[in-house]
Amino acid sequence: MMEVIIRTEGVWKSFGQNGPRHVDAVKDVTVEIIRGKKTALGGPSGSGKTTLLGLMMLLTTPSKGKVYIEGEDVSRFSEVFRAKIRREKIGLILQANYLIPHLTAIENVALPKLCTDMAKSRAEDIARDKLEQLDLGHRLHFKVAELSGGEQQRVSIARALVNNPKILIADEPGSSIDKKLTWNLLKLLDDMVKNNAMTIVLASHNQLILDWADRSYMMDEGKIV
Amino acid sequence: MGVQKHTNLASYALGNLFKYRIRSVAIVVALVISTSLLCSTEFIHEGVQRDIDYSLEEGPDIIVQQLEAGRQTTIPMSWVGNISQVPGVKIVLPRVWGYADVGSGKFLTIMGINATPYQNIADAIGTRIQEGEFLQEGATRTIVIGQGIVDLMNAASNPINVGVGSVISLIAHNQSLIEFTIVGIFETDSNIYSYDMVLTDIQSARELFGISKDKCMDIAVWTEAGSYLSDVAFRIENRLIDSRVLSQDALKDAMLRTYGDKAGIVALLWTVLLLTVLLLAFTVSSAGSDEARREVGLLKALGFDTVDILEIRMIESLIQSLLGASLGISISIIYTFGLGAPGLAGLLLGWDLVLLNGGIPLMISIATLFLVYSMALIPILVATVIPAWRNAITEPDIVLRGI
Q1: pLDDT in tens, B300-357
Q2: B207: which residues sit within 8 A by CB, 6+ positions away?
Q3: Quick one: which of A130, A196, A126 has its CA closest to A157?
Q4: Where are the domains of chain A?
Q5: A84: which chain B residues are within 8 Å (Cβ-Cβ)?
Q6: According to CATH, what is the number of the domain A4-224?
Q7: Which of A115, A117, A171 sits opposite B304 (nearest CB)?
Q8: Are B305 and B392 within 8 A, CB to CB?
Q9: What is the spatial distance between Cα A166 and Cα B265, in angstroms, rounded to a whole number?
C-alpha cells in the first residue's frame, strides 16, 4: 500500500495582501507525495511550482488550505516547530545551491547541525562522511569559490543529507549544471531512494528530470493542470 | 537544549566577526577609544576622591579662616584662645602657610606649625617620618618634606639629590633667599595635598611669608571624640562673627569642586564618543542587510529558528563589546597606572600641580569596571537588537524566491 508522506489540501499562497500587486502564486492545489517515491513538479517559469515546494518545505505558510506531513497538519505550526521539522525530516537542495561563501565545504555541510546539541567536531565527522560518499573527500577544506559548479552542487546535496532526512526536496536541481552532471545527480538521487528509503520531491522544467521521476505534477498559473 | 548548541552558535558568530572584519574592527576601535577615555577619567576621579579622603583623615576637623573683601586674610592670634574655650574643641593650632618658589618655577606648599602640639595629633599630615626626625620645638629654619619633593628635585632638569641634612633655599616674600635644613622626610597616603608639602616651625614660616607674630593664616581645630562637628563649627561661627568656619564636609566639597568638575568635560566628550559608537553600530548592523538577509533565510531553511539567529547576532555584539571594553580598560590601565596619564592628568588635576609619574592619585574599583562594561555592552546590544530582530524574522522562503 502506498503511504502519503506529504499532502497539500486546497492550498493557496497569495502575495500582496489584496492590494494592487496582489498575486495568487498557488491556487487551490491538492497533491500527494508518496513515501519512497520520486515526485516531480513541472511547468513553465512562474507557474507556482517553487512556491508550492516552499509550502511543502515549511519555508512559508499557506494563505488558505492545509499541509500535512506524515498525517499531521503542520500548516499552522509555530515558527519554532516548523524549523524543527525542517531540521529533522527535510533535506533541501536549493536552486542556486546557496552555500555560505566564507565557510569551507565541510563547514557548509555541517551547518544544519550547528543549531542542535551536537558538538561541532562530531558534526564535521558526519559532514566528512557525506562529502566522501559524494567523492568530495579531497575538497573538504576548500572554500566555496574554490569549487566547481558540479562540486558546489554535491556540497549542497551533502548538506541536505547531513541530518539523514526522510524527505529530500530539490528546487531546479539541474538548472546550473550540464547534462552529464544532471545525469550523475539523478543517479545519486536514485541511490538515495534505494539505500535510504528516501522520498524525493523536485521542481524542474527539465524534461530529463520530469521523465526520471516516478510521478509528476504539471503546474500552470498556480494550478495543477 | 544544552550548552553545546550555544557553543556552536557562538562559534558561528565568531566566524561572522572574522568575515566582516572591517566592520568588526571599526566598532571595536570606536569602543576602545571611548572606554579607555572614560576609564582613565574614572580612575583619576576615583583616585582624587580617595586622596581627598586621605587628606581629610590627616587634616583637622575644622579650619577657621578670616575673609576680607571676599579673600582669605590673616587672623589675629587672639582667636586661638577664643576657639579653645568652645565646648567640644580638643586642640587648636594656628598655622602659617603659603607657596614658595625653590627657584625652579615650581611652587611648594609651606606649612608653619608649632611642632610639639602638632606632633601629638594622631596621624596628622607629615608626622609619619620615614627618614630623619620631626621638627624639634624651638628649632628654626628646619623642615620636614614629603617624598614628592625628593622626587621632584631628582626629576628636575638639573637633578638635585636632596635628603636629610640637605639645605634648600626658598625665595621669601621680599625676594631674599632663606635657607632651610631638611631634618626629616615624611610619608603620606595623600598625594595631591601633601605630595609637595613642606612643614616648618611657625616662626620661620612667618619670616618667609612676611606675616607678623600676632597673626596666622588659619586655625586648625581638632574636636573631642563624640562631639558633633557641625555643632562645634556652629559655636565657633557664633563666637567669631568675622570667621569662615570650614568643617570636613565643606572642605571635601571644595576639594571635589577643584578637581572633580573638570571630569565633567571629559564625561561630555565621552558621551559624544559613545553616541558615535552607537550610530556606527546601528549603521553597520543595517548595512549589507541584503546579504545578511539571504544568509538568515538560508540558516532558517536549514532548521535555525528566529531565536537562534537573534542569539548569533547578540553574541556578535557581545563579543565586540566585551573585546572593545576589555581592550579599552587595559589600555587605560597602562596609560594611567603605567604612564601616569600624560595630558589627561594635567587637564583634570591642573597643569601647575606638582605631580610626577606614580604621584597621580589613581584608583580602580569593581564599580568602575562594571560601569564601563555596562556602558559598552548595553548600548551596543540595544543599537543592534532592532536590525538584528528585523534580520532574524526574515521568512526562509527568501532563498527560494532569490530576493
Answers
A1: 889 898 889 889 988 988 898 899 999 999 999 999 888 888 888 777 776 555 455 4
A2: B172, B178
A3: A130
A4: 4-224
A5: 303, 305
A6: 3.40.50.300
A7: A115
A8: no
A9: 65
Closest CA of chain A from B328, distance in Å: 29
Distance to chain A for B386, nearest Cα, Å: 19
Nearest residue to B400 (alpha-carbon basis) of A210, A56, A44: A56
Residues of chain A with pLDDT > 90: what percent? 49
Q: How far apart are CA B401 and CA B385, in angstroms?
A: 26
Mean pLDDT for back-to-back runs of 10 residues, chain B (403 residues)? 86 88 86 87 85 86 89 91 92 93 78 90 86 91 88 76 89 91 89 82 94 94 89 91 88 75 68 74 63 83 89 89 93 90 78 56 86 82 78 74 59
Assigned C-alpha cell, B248: 570636613
ipTM of the complex: 0.88
The grid coordinates of residue B190 equal: 595623600
Question: Which of A100, A114, A167, A171 to mutate to test binding with chain B, by most B CBs within 10 Å of its CB?
Answer: A114
Rounded to the nearest angstrom, the gap between the alpha carbon of residue B325 and the centroid of all alpha carbons in its chain is 20
- Provide the shortest C-alpha distance from residue B345 to chain A (in Å): 46
Q: Rounded to whole angstroms, how far apart are CA atoms A197 and B329?
A: 59
- Inter-CA distances, A143 with B20, B285, B295, Å: 16, 25, 16
